[in-house]
Write the structure tokens for this entry.
Amino acid sequence: MQPSPLANPLATVAQLETSGSRLDGIPPHMENSVRFAGAQLTQAAGVLLRLPQEVIAQALVVFMRFLVGPEGGSLAEFGAEQVSAASIYLTTKLSPYPKSPRSIINVYAYLSTLPSLTPTLEQLQEGKAERYYVSEGTYQNRRILLFEVEQRILKTVGFNVHVSLPYTLCITYLQALDLFSHPRASELAKRATAYLNTALLSPQMLYLTHQPSSLATAAIYLAAKEVNIKLPEVEWWEVFDTDREELGFLVVGMLSVESFAEEERMKWEGRRVPLSVEELEAEMKRENGSD
């Protein structure tokens, strides 16, 4: 049976229980921090590269797919920054918005100079990234590495880089629920989209464990509560192939991202999250030395 183009391959229980990073001795809390920081880096790079959010989202899912499971890539072998850049490069190649290796390398080099992985709007808009260049020697070395990591990602995910996203489904479901006639429909759609974007950064890797239809349903549920729009009193989510238990899990997962992000910010305040193999090794030595 041909898989639906609206569905994604989901991570198995075995893949969620462990990962290549953990098998290489990286503790779960460190893996979670680095993976989250890598996701933030991917989002910031996508914005600086002027990519549509849909393309950035696809890159984020590819980034997560590569790192999940015992057969997945290990942060002890590939730095999160390398995986992030290669995910962007690979995804844009398959999109109407291809980006050159030089553009990607320059943007990541610029981001490495910022004190935070969540740049301010001013930092993203002031145009410095477009004027930032690395030396030719550095560029050639990073270009080779970019291609190597890209090939490793393709091999690890079995060349399956198709990503179905929930954004269009979300709009379709809002129409089906006849919510666009509401005076606050625009605000509702914006908040639902914001929840879908937030879910991309979830430490539970919600885009790897749930189908787009369920993600869209949960985003609508949360957005409607936030903007105080009444939804049908019947169990409308079942029409969109989502049961109550899954809806509840996704609602909690989406809402928990903000608190997790704040915990990470406080944990790493004044320090950069280790996004290279060398930085990660140094951080683990520091942790072990302080035990």
Notes: The chain is about 60% helix and 0% strand. The radius of gyration is 19 Å. The chain has a mean pLDDT of 93.
